[in-house]
């Protein structure tokens, strides 16, 4: 084979390699959009559509409620995320998320408002509140909901430093206060007690045990029957952050 032919073959091989790499990248992007995590990442570059917080989060004796944010997507749908925030102790206790049409979002917000008094806030304030609650809980080795890091990209370019309001977490005494929820298993409750005992110390935390009572489900109205992928395994080999379908994992291990 002549030197000229060898150079030609090398150029062809290099071109084929680039084409293969490009096809793989396109396939990766396409497959990632079949998982909710991939759709949330894609939506993060879109404009914020709605941003609300529960009045309970600004109640000094409660500090419990929802933070809702949605972003517009290029195909006309919206990605919506609801963080269930416990500013007294647990940080982000639960998460619900999905991609839907604007009419569905309106229904979700309406249903959510039936159980919580929601009001519009700036995305910067919402992000500052959520991440502040997470940081507070982590002082006691209490991590946010298992899917938090996968849904966190929804904030995108929101700059929380634009929020000048300071949030104070913990109870009126400045101590973490754990109030068990209706879905908290006995094991989960014991784990929280142990973490507070270890990292806050005796006398530096409060425990309130609730027996029954109304529940607040972060998944209400979030399309529990939706199926987000024709093949849940399709994206698994490409992106380890795949969430199959909506975020519905049990917050209590």
Automatic annotation (TrEMBL):
Annotated Basic residues bias: 7-17
Residue stretches of biased makeup (Acidic residues): 222-242
Region (Disordered): 1-24, 216-253
Protein name per UniProt: Uncharacterized protein
């Amino acid at each position: 084979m002549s030197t000229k032919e060898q150079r030609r073959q090398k150029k062809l091989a290099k071109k084929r390699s680039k084409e293969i790499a490009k096809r793989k990248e396109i396939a990766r992007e396409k497959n990632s959009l079949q998982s909710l995590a991939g759709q949330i990442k894609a939506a993060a570059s879109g404009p914020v559509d709605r941003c609300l917080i529960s009045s309970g989060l600004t109640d000094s004796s409660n500090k419990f409620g929802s933070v809702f944010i949605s972003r517009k997507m290029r195909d006309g749908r919206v990605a919506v995320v609801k963080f269930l925030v416990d500013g007294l102790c647990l940080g982000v206790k639960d998460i619900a998320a999905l991609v839907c049409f604007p009419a569905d979002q309106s229904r979700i917000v309406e249903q959510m408002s039936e159980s919580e008094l929601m009001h519009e806030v700036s995305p910067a304030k919402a992000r500052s509140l959520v991440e502040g609650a997470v940081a507070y809980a982590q002082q006691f080795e209490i991590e946010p909901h298992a899917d938090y890091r996968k849904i966190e990209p929804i904030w995108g370019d929101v700059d929380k430093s634009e929020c000048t309001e300071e949030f104070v977490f913990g109870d009126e005494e400045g101590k973490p206060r754990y109030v068990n929820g209706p879905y908290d298993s006995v094991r989960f409750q014991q784990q929280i007690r142990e973490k507070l005992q270890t990292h806050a110390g005796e006398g530096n935390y409060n425990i309130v045990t609730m027996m029954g009572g109304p529940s607040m489900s972060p998944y209400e109205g979030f399309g529990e029957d939706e199926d987000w992928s024709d093949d849940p395994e399709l994206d698994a080999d490409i992106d380890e952050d795949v969430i199959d379908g909506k975020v519905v994992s049990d917050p209590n291990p």
